[in-house]
């Protein structure tokens, strides 16, 4: 009678738990960013390996390995860079799929095959299946609260700066660092159509201002010009494709098809309207 290899089973439990935690963290970050491409890359990498291999323990362990690799990259990228690059996530997903396939081909040339211990597979699947749903639900709930707070602030800024011009809606004096948020999260609904800001034109603006320093010597105040500085801003132009510009619109934030916050905005008049 063979002795059970509890060590192998324990390794599977740890691997499954780490994958579940990484996937839950990545899910929360993807939800916050509204980056649908990262979801497709993550799911696609795991699904590809699950379909390529037909041996039960092997296919599921490799699928979870791909999910761990891609989700860990998402977490690290978000922590270190403060955002997600969909192209880089896709590249990591491709590498995650290619590595085990390439390793398997090398072993095949040597007359061997990549094998996964059944106890490792069972431990991995049991641990992952037990933890992934509650952890993901917790992370998504926290991400939704963060999204509500961030989007309410963003929509308030959009509402204050949104103006109408002939044939278009314009946002001026916008911080360039918010471009990705505007493109991925914000859309505008008129009476006839919904427009996403990912379809808008983004232009650079430069705002110059003078920095003065006031000095007080012997009771005499003096204002000296120190320097002139420039601040880079952004102008967003959303063309309404020939439709009449309405008096008010609904600005809303979204994550994929899900609406997070919406706000009705009365549009300020342009110079042409006032004349």
Give the key terms.
2 domains; four-stranded antiparallel β-sheet; 275 residues; alpha+beta; 55% helix; 8 strands; 7 helices; single chain; elongated
Instruction: Please give the radius of gyration in angstroms.
Output: 27 Å
Q: How many DSSP H or I helices?
A: 7
Give the spatial strand order of the biggest sheet.
Answer: 1-2-6-5
Give the N-terminus to C-terminus distance in angstroms: 94 Å
Largest sheet: 4 strands, antiparallel
The proportion of residues in beta strands is 25-35%
Average pLDDT over all residues: 85
Q: SSE string, helix = H, strand = E?
A: HHHHHEEHEEEEEEH
How would you portray this structure in words?
The protein is α+β, with helices and mostly antiparallel strands and 275 residues long. It has two domains: 6-150, no CATH class; 152-274, no CATH class. Helix content is 55%, strand content 26%. The strands form two sheets. Strands 1-2-6-5 form a four-stranded antiparallel beta sheet. A four-stranded antiparallel beta sheet has the order 4-3-7-8. Strand 1 (162-165) and strand 2 form a beta hairpin. The termini are far apart. 29% of the residues are buried. The model has no long low-confidence stretch (mean pLDDT 85).
């Amino acid at each position: 009678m063979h002795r059970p290899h509890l060590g192998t089973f324990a390794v599977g439990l740890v691997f499954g738990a780490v994958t579940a935690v990484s996937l839950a963290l990545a899910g929360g970050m993807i939800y916050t960013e509204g980056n649908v491409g990262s979801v497709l890359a993550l799911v696609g990498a795991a699904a590809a390996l699950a379909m390529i291999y037909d041996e039960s323990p092997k296919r599921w362990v490799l699928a979870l390995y791909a999910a761990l690799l891609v989700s860990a990259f998402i977490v690290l990228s978000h922590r270190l860079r403060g955002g997600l690059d969909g192209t880089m996530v896709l590249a990591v997903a491709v590498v995650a799929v290619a590595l085990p396939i390439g390793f398997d081909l090398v072993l095949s040339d040597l007359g061997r095959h990549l094998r996964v211990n059944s106890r490792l597979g069972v431990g991995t699947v049991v641990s992952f299946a037990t933890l992934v749903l509650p952890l993901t639900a917790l992370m998504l709930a926290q991400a939704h609260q963060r999204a509500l707070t961030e989007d309410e602030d963003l929509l308030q800024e959009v509402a204050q700066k949104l103006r109408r011009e002939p044939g278009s809606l314009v946002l001026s004096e916008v911080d360039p660092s918010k471009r990705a948020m505007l493109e991925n999260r914000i859309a505008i609904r008129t009476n006839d159509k919904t427009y996403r800001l990912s379809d808008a034109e983004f232009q650079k603006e430069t705002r110059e201002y003078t920095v003065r320093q006031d000095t007080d010597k012997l009771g005499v105040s003096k204002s000296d010009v120190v320097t002139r500085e420039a601040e880079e801003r952004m102008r967003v132009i959303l063309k309404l494709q020939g439709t009449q510009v309405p008096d008010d619109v609904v600005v809303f934030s979204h994550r994929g098809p899900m609406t997070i916050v919406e706000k009705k905005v009365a549009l300020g008049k342009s110079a042409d309207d006032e004349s």
